[in-house]
TrEMBL record:
Transmembrane segments: none annotated. Signal peptide: none annotated. PANTHER family: TYPE-4 URACIL-DNA GLYCOSYLASE, TYPE-5 URACIL-DNA GLYCOSYLASE. Keywords: 4Fe-4S, DNA damage, DNA repair, Hydrolase, Iron, Iron-sulfur, Metal-binding. Residues 1-21 are annotated as: Disordered. Residues 30-148 form the Uracil-DNA glycosylase-like domain. SUPFAM superfamilies: Uracil-DNA glycosylase-like (SSF52141). This is Uracil-DNA glycosylase. The keyword Nuclease does not apply.
């Protein structure tokens, strides 16, 4: 099924359940990009991966822009860095709401906002999920695959980076948070994405048509 929408920012019209943002910041940074995308990049929260003032994931912060540069390198993004044009790619966060400067989400905060992330993930129904960092990767592996028990706790993101993990009807490709990248990490994820684009990656969905 194809999504019928011409909206790039928050295409499903989600509304923030609270506003704890600093003055001038957006209450929440919901999904952005191609609502019919095959590739879904999943970040953590606006304070670390950006968008508090732009309303667009993976903008403003060094870590967010590093992820955006990878997406650009494989041809998914073009145009302005604060409001890029995305093709075949969608961006969202496991915790979309903005918080006061210096405040980080608690476990309860992540649980409270899971319904928003889950709604976007299921609506996009991408072939490839690309969680960025330990928290998004842990959430995706726990909730949308049967593979979490196979990996250490906490996750060894250096070992998982740019690997392929089979999910329930899709493929998970974890990305180490750019703040922790070492030599070759950027090149590894670019190479993995290029290889997927050259493959028949749509077979990752098999007969499954919904996540879960």
């Amino acid at each position: 099924m194809r999504n019928v929408t011409d909206r790039t920012s928050n295409p499903f019209g989600l509304r923030a359940p609270f506003d704890r943002s600093d003055p001038g910041d957006r209450p929440a940074v919901f999904g952005y990009g191609d609502a019919n995308a095959d590739f879904h990049v999943i970040g953590d929260y606006p304070g670390v991966h950006g968008g508090e003032t732009t309303g667009v994931p993976f903008t403003e912060t060094e870590a967010g822009l590093a992820v955006q540069d990878v997406v650009r390198a494989v041809g998914f993004a073009s145009g302005p860095r604060d409001e890029p044009v995305l093709e075949n790619c969608f961006w969202s966060y496991v915790h979309p709401c903005s918080l006061p400067a210096g405040e980080t989400p608690t476990d309860d905060d992540y649980d409270d906002l899971e319904r928003f992330f889950d709604a976007e993930l299921r609506a996009i129904n991408a072939h490839i999920l690309l969680p960025v960092g330990a928290r998004p990767t842990d959430r995706v592996l726990r909730e949308y695959t049967t593979q979490r028990r196979r990996y250490d706790d906490p996750l060894e993101m250096a070992a998982l980076h740019a690997s392929e993990i089979r999910g329930r009807g899709f493929l998970v490709v974890p990305i180490r948070d750019p703040r922790e990248w070492g030599d070759g990490d950027r090149e590894a994820i670019v190479a993995r994405l290029e290889a997927l684009l050259e493959s028949d990656y749509r077979q990752t969905k098999g007969v499954a048509t919904t996540v879960g």
